[in-house]
């Protein structure tokens, strides 16, 4: 076996080990685990239903059984289409919208891991999500002929978001924070609860044009004595 073949074998073995771990943990708890290695996208479509039913965990600590992961990504995707003109001229907006719809796809199996989950490090969170994206793109979608959106394109867009190097990725990261800030204000109004601990997210917005939005949203927060 030449060096290239050995490398391919090692990668394949590592992927199989991760997939087996995934199968023995999360997948084994599903009432209807997706059919694997099929030429149909239907099992993948069923998996996406979990994004509709899995709640965003940050709010649940405050007794708010609110938005799902899909709710979050849907508003994000719409927001990307309203980039300020001076920023939009530098962006590939359709690509940003695609990224917004893909960036939390791994949470269909790993769930919404938040910064307060101290037992899961940032590195471990990234590893779990990468494993799920490998499972989705290789095991669920690997045998499906490429169409308008191929499995490898999904994987590339997800990784681009994770790397956060391109302007499009930075923009979508900022939109992710903006969507949270909007939801913070809306839940404070609806539930009369103080969600101040989320306000610091506004300071993490990077792009000047989106900083303006963040400041406008924070200014909407109810005044507290």
Automatic annotation (TrEMBL):
One GO MF term on file is: metal ion binding
Its BP terms in the Gene Ontology are:
deoxyribonucleoside monophosphate catabolic process
Q: Which cofactor does it need?
A: Mn(2+); Co(2+); Mg(2+)
Per UniProt, the enzyme's principal EC class comes to hydrolase
Extract the Pfam families matched here. HD_3 (PF13023)
Q: Where is the HD domain?
A: 48-206
Tell me which EC number(s) this protein carries. Answer: 3.1.3.89
Q: Name one GO cellular component term.
A: cytoplasm
Question: Which keywords does the record carry?
Answer: Cobalt, Hydrolase, Magnesium, Metal-binding
Q: Which SUPFAM superfamilies match?
A: HD-domain/PDEase-like
List the catalysed reactions. a 2'-deoxyribonucleoside 5'-phosphate + H2O = a 2'-deoxyribonucleoside + phosphate
Q: What does this protein do?
A: Catalyzes the dephosphorylation of the nucleoside 5'-monophosphates deoxyadenosine monophosphate (dAMP), deoxycytidine monophosphate (dCMP), deoxyguanosine monophosphate (dGMP) and deoxythymidine monophosphate (dTMP).
Q: How does it assemble?
A: Homodimer.
Name the family.
Belongs to the HDDC2 family.
Any idea what this protein is called?
A: 5'-deoxynucleotidase
């Amino acid at each position: 076996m030449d060096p290239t073949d050995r490398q391919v074998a090692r990668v394949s073995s590592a992927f199989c080990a991760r997939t087996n771990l995934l199968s023995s943990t999360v997948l084994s708890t599903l009432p209807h685990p997706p059919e694997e290695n099929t030429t149909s996208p239907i099992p993948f479509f069923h998996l996406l239903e979990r994004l509709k039913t899995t709640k965003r965990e940050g709010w649940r600590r405050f007794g708010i059984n609110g938005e799902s992961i899909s709710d979050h990504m849907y508003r994000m995707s719409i927001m990307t289409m309203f980039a300020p003109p001076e920023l939009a001229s530098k962006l590939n907006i359709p690509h940003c919208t695609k990224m917004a719809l893909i960036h939390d796809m791994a949470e269909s199996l790993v769930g919404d891991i938040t910064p307060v989950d101290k037992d899961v490090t940032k590195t471990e969170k990234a590893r779990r999500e990468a494993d799920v994206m490998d499972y989705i793109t290789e095991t669920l979608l690997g045998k499906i002929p490429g169409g308008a959106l191929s499995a490898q394109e999904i994987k590339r867009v997800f990784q681009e978001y994770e790397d956060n190097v391109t302007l499009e990725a930075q923009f979508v990261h900022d939109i992710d924070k903006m969507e949270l800030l909007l939801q913070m204000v809306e839940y404070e109004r609806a539930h009369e609860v103080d969600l101040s601990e989320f306000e610091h997210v506004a300071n993490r917005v990077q792009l000047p044009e989106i900083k303006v939005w963040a400041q406008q949203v924070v200014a909407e927060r109810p005044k507290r004595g």
